[in-house]
Specification:
16 helices; two-stranded antiparallel sheet; globular; mainly alpha; 307 residues
Length: 307
């Protein structure tokens, strides 16, 4: 966040220094350094004066941005060279190290965990529940679907069935269980898996409509404030960060969640109050359970519930 703020204030060398420090703490932060670079390039290219109007359609908008970036390449390179060095140095380290992992490589083997983005959009929708599930947004989604079905019934029905089919395939083929998930009963994710998804297979499929709605809603609220190219860049960085991760942990969602929150359509004052109240209650409950609901492991050591 500090690196992004410095970049927005055009303090690129400070941004690069902070970004390099962040990558030392967590290697996947290199992806978010690329996001910072990409956002800087896109915003400058899409705001640059040009004889051509900026296209609304995503493919044409991307081509426009690439063309403008090429025209401005020396200006962009002069400003962003220090930031660009960070992912380049990290890439050289990955080649030298034989992978991204510094610790237990067996436990952190990169996989194709395609359910991770779906877990993420569900997490976002719940974390921003008063916004995503407000009556106005639900009504907007239902009215839009109704109008699409009335205007283009066959095409809309095909899209719906295709979406449900793809999501069902992802649930069926890419629901992965890391050994750590089922080995540590201190984590809330242990109980979410054991008591819901492992016990009731249908629960995994029951969430398909929620995944679809949440993905639509997040894209909608981001593109209400940002260009579609910026939203696509955010999506790609989130996918690249999450999909290789075998283990499901809420902390992996922290940075992409912050990026969505920073770039989304502003919530109303009443929605913000509800969101803040929800966070306060969640934190209070978490601290209470951690402090006062400890339990004993078989070796008689004390264990406490944590995220």
């Amino acid at each position: 966040m500090a690196s992004y703020l410095a970049c927005l204030k055009h303090r690129y060398k400070v941004s690069a220094l902070v970004a390099g420090w962040a990558v030392l703490f967590r290697q996947t932060n290199a992806v978010w350094v690329c996001f910072i670079i990409g956002m800087s390039v896109l915003k400058r290219c899409l705001k640059a004066k040009s004889d051509k109007p900026i296209p609304e359609a995503l493919p044409q908008q991307l081509m426009f941005a690439v063309e403008r970036a090429w025209q401005m390449k020396w200006v962009l390179l002069a400003d962003l060279w220090a930031l660009i060095l960070v992912p380049l140095i990290f890439a050289a380290f990955v080649v030298w190290n034989g992978g991204i992992v510094l610790g237990d490589k067996a436990a952190h083997t990169p996989v194709r965990h395609l359910m991770q983005p779906l877990y993420f959009v569900l997490f976002i929708a719940i974390a921003l529940g008063p916004f995503h599930f407000s009556p106005a947004r639900l009504r907007e989604a239902l009215m839009g679907l109704q109008q699409a079905l009335q205007g283009q019934p066959l095409q809309t029905s095909a899209k719906l069935m295709g979406t449900v089919g793809i999501l069902g395939l992802l649930v069926n083929k890419f629901t992965m269980v890391h050994p750590y998930l089922v080995a540590d009963n201190r984590h809330y994710t242990f109980y979410i898996w054991k008591d819901i998804f492992a016990r009731f297979a249908a629960a995994r499929y029951a969430l398909i409509p929620v995944y679809a709605y949440s993905g639509w809603s997040i894209w909608n609220i981001v593109t209400a404030q940002q260009s579609k190219s910026c939203a696509l860049l955010m999506t790609l960085c989130t996918v690249v960060t999450l999909v290789p991760a075998w283990l499901v942990e809420f902390r992996y969602f922290t940075i992409p969640f912050a990026m969505v929150a920073l770039h989304m359509q502003p919530a109303s004052a009443s929605q913000l109050r509800l969101i803040i109240a929800g966070y306060a209650l969640t934190n209070a409950a978490t601290v209470y359970i951690f402090l006062f609901r400890a339990f004993q492991w078989p070796d008689h050591s004390i264990a406490r519930f944590i995220w």
